[in-house]
Structure formats: C-alpha cells, structure tokens
Write a structure and sequence with these properties.
The complex is a heterodimer. By secondary structure, chain A is α+β, with helices and mostly antiparallel strands. Classes of the chains: A alpha+beta, B mainly alpha.
Chain lengths: 891, 108
Amino acid sequence: MPDSLSPPRLPRRILAWIGGRDRAFGALRDLEDLYLFDLKEIGPRAARRRYRRQAAAAAFGYLRNQFFWSFPMLNNYLKIAWRNITRRKGLAFLNIFGLSVGLAVCLSILIYYRHETSYDDDHEFRDRIVRFEPRFLNPDGSVRGGFATLAPGFVPLLETDFPAVEKIARLVSLSSFGDTFVTNGESVTREPRVFLADAALFEIFSLPLVEGDSRSALSEPNTVVLSSTTARRYFPDSPALGRMLKLENRISGPILVRIAGVMKDAPLNSHFHCDILGSLASVKAVRSLDAYFYGTTNLTDNVAYIYARLAPGASAASLEASLPAFLDRVLPTRTTEDGQTLRPSSRYGLIVRPVSEIHLQARNNNEIEPGGDPKMLSLFILIAGLILAVACINFVNLATARASKRAREVGLRKVVGGRRKTLAFQFMLESVMIVFVSMVAGLALARLTLPAFSSMAGRPLSFAAVLEPGSLLILAGVFLLASLVSGLYPAAYISGFRPAAILRGELTRGSRGALFRKIMVVFQFAVSVVLIIGVGVVGRQMRFLREVDLGFDRENVILMPVSSEIIGSWEDVHRELAADTAVLDASLSKRAPSGSLQDAPGFLATVNGTLVRSSFSMPHNRVSREFFRTYRMRFVAGRDFSEDFPTDATEAFVLNETAVRRLGWASPEEAVGRPFSVAGGRNGRVIGVTADFNYESLHKEIVPIVTYIVPGQANTLSVRLAAGRVEDGLNHVRSVWNRYRPGFPFEFDFLDDRLNGLYQNEERMMRMFRAFSGLAVLVACLGLFGLASYAAEQRIREIGIRKVMGASAGRIVAMFSAEFGRWICAAILLAWPVGYVLMKKWLGGFAYKTSIGWAPFIVSAVLAIAIALATVVSRTLRAASANPAESLRHE
Amino acid sequence: MKLLSRIEEIILLAVLRLGADAYGLTICREVSRVTEKDWLVGAIYAPLARLHKNGHVEIRPGPQGVDPAENRRIYYLVTPQGLEALGETRRITARGWLGLSDPKTERP
C-alpha cells in the first residue's frame, strides 16, 4: 500500500499554513523521518496517529508564540498611532470631524430609511392584508389614473366570489364628505380624522383596545371607538367607555353616538391614524346610504377604502390576475357608437395592493395620509453615500500626503524585519481607530441633530431605529466599508516604500500619489458643484411653482367648508357677505383650486355637426354664479354667468381652453353658443370659454373642465377679501358665519397657503437637499483645507527662496491658488454636464417647469471657486508672509 | 563554568552515543528511549540550540552521497568542551552519590 508510506496530508498542510513555509519546513522534515521510523516499528496506523498528534502539538506551539509576540507589536502600533494623532491634532480633527459628519448623515438617513420602510409592519396579519384599488385604463391598456378608494358595491361581490378573501372591510373617511363636528356637552370641536368602518376592520388590522371589546365594538349602529389621545381630550379624568357624543356631518346629519371602545393610538408608522372610528352600520338608518355603502349597486362612486385579509397561503398576485374576468362579469358591457362591444375590464381594472406597499409605493391622489417618496429616499441614500465618500477621500488624501513624514518610520520598520503585510496591517489599524472614533462622534452628532432632522423630514423619527439588529448590521457594514475605503489605499501606498531609497533620503513626495490626490479633489468638488447646481435648480422650480400665473388671482382668497344652512340660504348669505366693502365677492363650489378634480360623469357635445360623447375624461365643477368673478378667472370668449340671464342657473356651461381644443373646435369663439349637455340630464349651451387655469398641483397637466351652476352640491365657500383690508374682511365673514352656524368654530384657509401646501413634499425635499449639500461642501472644504496647509508646509523652503528672490506674499498665494484653482475648474467643467442631465431629469416630473437656465451653473462655479480659494488662501497666507530667514535657517 | 541542565546533559549524551548519526529526530528518539517518555520532536531543539550557543555541540555537514533531501538535516557533534562539561557533570553526580545507596534497589 503505497498510500500509507506517505504521512497524512491534511496536518501537513495546516502546519505549513500556520507556521509559514520556511519555519514549518524543518519540523515537517523531522516529522516525516519519524513517520518512516514508526512505520517500520509500530505499523502504519499507529504511525499515522503519532504523526497527527505531533503535528497538532507543533501547530499549537506556533500559534501560542504568534499570539504571545503579537501583543508587544499591537501595543507598539497603537502607541505610534496615538502619537501620530496627538502630534498633528489639527489634522486628526479634520479627519475625525469630516468623517463624523459623513457618518452622522449616513446614520440620519439610515434612521429615515428604516422609518419609511417600516410602515404597517406591526399588524399581526401584515403579510396578508391588502387594499383593493381601482385603475382607469387607456384603450391601449396603460393606466390613466386611479384612486386609493373603491366603490363599496364591490365588497359583497368580492367576498362571495373569492375564497382567498377571508375578511373584508370598508373604511370611509368622513372628511371627504365635508367637515365633522363633535359636540360634547357645550363645546363643539371640528374633528379632521373621523372614519366609519365595518366591524371586520378589527379582524384585519391589529388595533388593540384598551377599553371595550374589539369583537363587538363596531357591530352596532351609532357606536364609535376613540383613540386614547382623543378619549383623554374629551374625558380627561373618567373612563370614556359608554359615554355619549354628538357627531354632525353633512351625510349623516346630527347623530348621537355611544363610545364602545378606546383603542391604543396607532403607531406613528401607520398609513392611517383615526381619532374617531365610528361604525359604518350607523348609516344603515339612512335609507339612501344603506344601499350606497352596503348594496351591490354602487359600483361607480369610489368612496371607501377597501381592506381585506387574505386566506393563509393565498397570493395577492394570483387574486389580481383573476380580477379582470370578475369585472367583466359584474360590470355592464358598453357598446360604442360603431356597434363594437367593450369589455369592462378593457377600461377599468382593480389592483390588489399589499398593505406594506401603501406608504411608499401607492401614491394615489386620495391617500388617507400623504405617503413617502421612494425616489426621494433613494436620492438621499445616494447623497449619504457621496458625503461619506467625500469624507473618506479626505482621509486618504491627508494620509498619503503625510506619508513622506512617516517614510523613515516605514523604512526603519522594514529594515528591522517588518514585512509589507504587517506594515499594511499597522496602517489599516490606524484608520480603523480613526473611523471608530468618528463613528462614536457621528452617533452622538446624529442623536443631537435628530429632532431638527425629523422636523425637516416631516416624520417622527426615533433613534431606537439604530439599535435594531438590521440597522446594526448596516452600521457594521458602513463601518467596515469606511475603514476599508479610507485605510486600504494609504496602507498599500505607504507600505510599498522601498527602505533603501527612504533611508538614503531619496523619497519625499511621490508624483504618483500627488496625481491621485488631485483626481480625488476634483471628484470631491465635482460632487459639491453638482449638489450646488441641484439646490439652485430645485430652488428655482420652487419659486416658479409659488409665483407662476395660475390663471387666476390667488391672493386674499379664503376657503372654508360649508354646511347645509349656508347652502340653503345662499342668496341671503351672499348678500350679507357682500354688504361690507372689505369683501369683494364670495361663491360656492364643489371643487376649488388646490383641491383635486374627482368627478367626471360624462358629457355630450355637438362639434362641427357630429355628436361627441364622453370620448375623454372631462371633470365637472359645480359652482354658484359668482365663481369666476371670485377667482378673477379670465374669459377668452363669450361671457361669465350673470344675474341678467336667469336661465344660466339651469342651461349654461363654461369650458376652458383645453376642453375646447380637445373637443375639436377651431377657436374658443366657435364654441360659444354650441349645444352641450352633461350626464344627469342637464342640456344647454356653452356661454363662455375661460383661459386655462391650474386647479390641481402643477405636477399635472391642465385638464379639460366644464363648469355649471349647481350651488346645492357645494363643499367649499370661497371669499375674496379686499387687498389691504384682510382683517376687516375676516371679521365680517366671521360675524356672518356665526349668524348662520352659531356655536360652530369659524375655520378657514388662505388659498395661497393651500396652494403652497401642494408642494410641501418638494419644499421638504428642498430643505433636506440644501442641508445635505451644505454638509457635502463643508466636508470637501475640510479636505482641501488640510491639503492646502500641508502643501504650504511642505514647500516652506521653496516659499522662502522665492521671497528671497523678490516674490511678494501676494504672488506666492496667487501661485498656490492657481495650482488648486486649476483642479477646481476641472471639477466644475466635469460637474456641469452631469448636473444638467440630472436636473433635466428631475424637472421632467413636473408638468409645468422652469427652464434650467444658466444661473445655477454660474453660481455653483463662482461659489466653488470662492470657497476653494478662501480655503487655500487662508492656509497659505501665513506661510507666504513668514520671514524667509526662519524657513531657510537650516539650509 | 556553568553547569549543564538535566535535559542538556541527556541530549549531550544522546549526541555522543549516536555519533555520526546524530540529528534532530534520532536525538529525540534516543532521549525518548533513555527517559522512557515520548518526546515531541520540536521539544529538543530549544536545549539543543542552547548547547550550540554555549559551544557544547557543533554543527557538521551531513554524510556525502545521500539523497539531496537528507542534506536538509542538521547533524550535531559533541565538542571537546562539551565532553569536558559532561565529564564534570558525571563527577559531580558521582561525588554526590558517594556512600549513598540507590533508593530503588536497596530499600524495598
């Protein structure tokens, strides 16, 4: 057996690996000899056993030695690292400060990220909760629009048709039907977060009750569940259970409700929060509403959020795939003019949205609460990465720039037997130390700035998110990455010095390293310039949104919700409002600018002799006669509604320019006087055409709109006050309000506040973006500051000689500035096209946008050069104005 | 002159006995035989190095004409100084034992 002649291979390999090839060789030689002897004397099995034992003992000895001797070296490394840090305190501060700012930004964004992705994850059935959402389809199958709400008529149908739907519940926001007022004893409060829901909601979401029983809480009519905070607000000292409140809303009328439970406040990272959750069964008493919410006939009015809990193992995707066939079955088939039948599912679809996606991905117009923005989130993650990269580059640059100072140390270590590996280890250890200190400082910084950051982000962020296992893992990853990125290059670079050259004094500064440093500075400043351009363009766009001509006068208009009392006696209310000269005009409307245009029941028009029937979606707005006057919307043809034409109230329509264009008339003048009708049986003529105006946010194109007089359906009262007499006007409106709605609080919004509110997301993004960009520029400057001071110090003799030869301090500073300035200019040239492309893309998300213009580019360049020069000059001026005798004394 | 330690003495005796065949492994086996304990091969190198430093053994090239792998062995030879130290140790031991009996054989 030839195999047993050779000793076992594995121990041999292990020994060679542990001991190093040279050292283990002698031992292995001996072990093999021993094995050969043993083979003859005690047989192969015993020989092998003995070989293994001996090899194991030798390996253990080697390890013990290595461990023992590594302590003095480790000690030495730490000592040297500490000395290096304390010797150059300024430099160490730059490094640590830059890195901690970078890490703090990373941490803050990590917290933000964890918050944004953690929505609705503490419901017991979170993986099985879905929401049904309608989608309107174009003829080619693409999605034209959609809502978060669905028509409640689908609920019984879905429940019976799909066994995968285990529980299903409707959630209705009462605020979408106007304001809700709650009377407790004498006081009346407007409650914005009032919902009605089926009892099954408690079986879908985990909403624990602190008082009452969740199984029965919402099953009876006229019962409500309050959130703990609301319960305390109404009944500060006594239990709320069983107490009565009066609830008043336009659809329900005044009803007396009993408090059947108090639930824990929903966690902050829920996609909806309700103060008062009433039983939807309450509306059963109202006969028309019973069918509206509970029948199967209402398949068109999207008024309820429909949540379902799926059966275990059921997949949302397969449920969604079976929905088109379901829709074809339950929805009526339509026939077009040319006799083709249209399947309902070709125009209309349902999607099944998992609850975990609602916050970040749903982004419907009528979400219960505004969701997050995944694009914004990834942008911030990118910025965090960039700032960290800039900070790491600082570290690398300063470490390599300083390398010549440490060349002698490296040379000596090599001469006395330091291997490249151990030297690299030493320098890695130093950077790990710096990163560690920065990490601790960064954590503290992030903790301190968290309150400011949460208000900027508009989210209640908690530092506890950092301590979750997932975050800690990410944190460890960032730590390792930062250590590697900032330590690897200096370690490789410095440990590669040739000892002979160093000790002869040949090496001082490597030109290779200098080039690398300059490229890095270019990169840092390019990043900074791109961010400055971003801030400029975003700011321009925000200003544009605030100041653009919307097609109406947005100043001095107040909006308030209306009640049936005001609508019922509108003629009187209007007369009284107009009595004071501080009020210029007032009107009622179903939709007002800054709201969304939700209803588009259909229309019929005769254009050039042919009949056009709802060929595209044209939202309707139902208003009182004074609407266009109140908003000062401009007419391009025809006339406004007028008291002189009593028939206006029943047969007059006003279109906007876009509607005229879409309908196919050649000019607005041509449209005036043409017959027009809308679904619901109103026939009449077009009496006027207004200029286009933006009802909704400028993210959207202007849509065609038809306006006609139906004051009875109004939601909003708009009042235009005289400029400069806003206070008088408000007092007058309040007195009229109190006459018609005694006891109810007078609450209103200014139109321009509401309009600006549409861009809150952008405002917020703008603020965060500006802050982060500022930090990136700051960190980049720190690096330049360090490099400039280092360069000035390195070339102190050159400066001395130049001064002796007659150069002025100014010329020397100019020389340095020109040197750094060249690279900053390169960075700017690099950053311009990148910034242009990125901002072009960002502006693409707006239907109405400003031009990018040249100003942000010029400003960014001037700013970058100014900041860089200020940094360089401040560092070199001292060196340049020093007495040359000082610096040359040693030559 | 410094006295030899016990292990140095045993190793030196092994080298002396092995003569031309004294290298790491054979020394180890001889030590193991004499002490009736299984020694690790590596364990003899530290005292052997000490003996070499103190001039009690010298390194000599291995026998010519064997295969090249064997030339990696280091052969040892006792120096006259080593011999003298051995003799000294022996005399010290003998003087110490003079008039005493071996406890193992004499006292049951």
